[in-house]
Amino acid sequence: MPERTAPQTPGFNPQLKKTIEAFRDENSPQKLNTVINELVKSPLLTPAMLDLQGAPAPKPGADGRIQLPKNTKISLMMLNSKEGKHYYMAFSDWEAVRAWQKQASQKCQIMVVRFDDFANMLQKNKESSGLILNPGETSLRLEAPLIESVKKQKDALAKAREASQIHPGDKVTIVEPTLLPDELLDPICEVLAQAPGVGSAYLQIMIVNDTTKRYLLVLDGPKDEKLFAAVAQAARPYLASRTPPMDFTITTSVSPLGQQGMRGSDPFYRKGIGRIVEDDDE
If you write DSSP's letter for every residue of 218-245 in order, what string do you get? Predict the structure, then answer.
């Protein structure tokens, strides 16, 4: 159940607000996808009405969180469009909340909610039409079918990731991909171009126990979790579009798996050159 959280609660994703603004400046599928990528991993704020059923108002703990009484009834506030549609509201940070509160007609509580929570509520509440991010002059409306589609892709990727985990005793076979998809590698190369520590990058197919396939990306450079996350985000649209969805493992050239993935393979990216495209002309 979502919890009411005090305004000082940290951890909101500043990139979400930036991607919303960027999408409003340039309405394109690519910009919308960047919003979705940030949305699914970001804590969100939403206004709600609480009915404590006669219980005394709880006091916040040392961390600012409030534990609601067991029988508390929670009703998330919704925004009505000119077309008569009803939308849940989600805010990227407290600044966006305060801007909305200046125009709000009634007082309410603010709660922390995740993307999955909204997706589940939209599925249950058929009268709701979707989600509005940062209601106000810079709002972004996401319709319920899009939210449902993203949730399905997210769940499918999580399932594929779990199924493809490597465990002790698993048989792992690495093979050259027959095709290097531009839709996957071009966004990855854009990220790597901003990573001066990466000298080259290799892509392979990893088959686990002769059944599960996933991509293996080997970066010739130091291990960098932040870079790994950025690369994974860039790859997400292509991986989710596959049937069934695919996942991939990222490793470095100094790991045993990375050494195996580089052996006999040509890189698709080199520092200072960028994407390397093989010349098919003989």
Answer: EESS---HHHHHHHHHHHHHHHHHSSS-
Sign of the torsion angle spanned by Cα atoms 41, 47, 53, 56: positive
Q: Is 57 helix (H, G, I), strand (E, B) or coil?
A: coil
Distances (CA, A) of 181 to 111, 118, 136, 185: 42, 33, 40, 6
- The Cα–Cα gap between 250 and 232 comes to 8
Q: Which domains does the chain have, with CATH numbers?
A: 3-154 (no CATH), 172-275 (3.30.460)
* Cβ atoms of residues 206 and 173 within 8 Å: yes
Query: Is residue 56 left, alpha or beta, with left meaning phi > 0 and alpha meaning psi from -120 to 50?
Result: beta
pTM for this entry: 0.57
Distances (CA, A) of 270 to 218, 222, 239: 12, 15, 23
HSE, side-chain direction, 13 A CA sphere, residue 242: 17
The two most distant CA atoms of the chain are separated, in Å, by 81
Q: What is the pLDDT of residues 125-156, one digit of tens each?
A: 888 999 999 998 778 999 999 999 889 888 87
Cis peptide bond N-terminal to 244, omega within 30:
yes
Helical segments of the chain, H only: 14-25, 29-39, 94-101, 115-124, 144-163, 182-192, 225-241, 256-262
* CA-to-CA dists, residue 44 to 8, 37, 117, 183, 192, angstroms: 14, 14, 10, 30, 29
Residues in the chain, total:
282
pLDDT-based confidence at residue 167 (cuts at 50, 70, 90): low
Where do we find the tokens 């293996």? 216
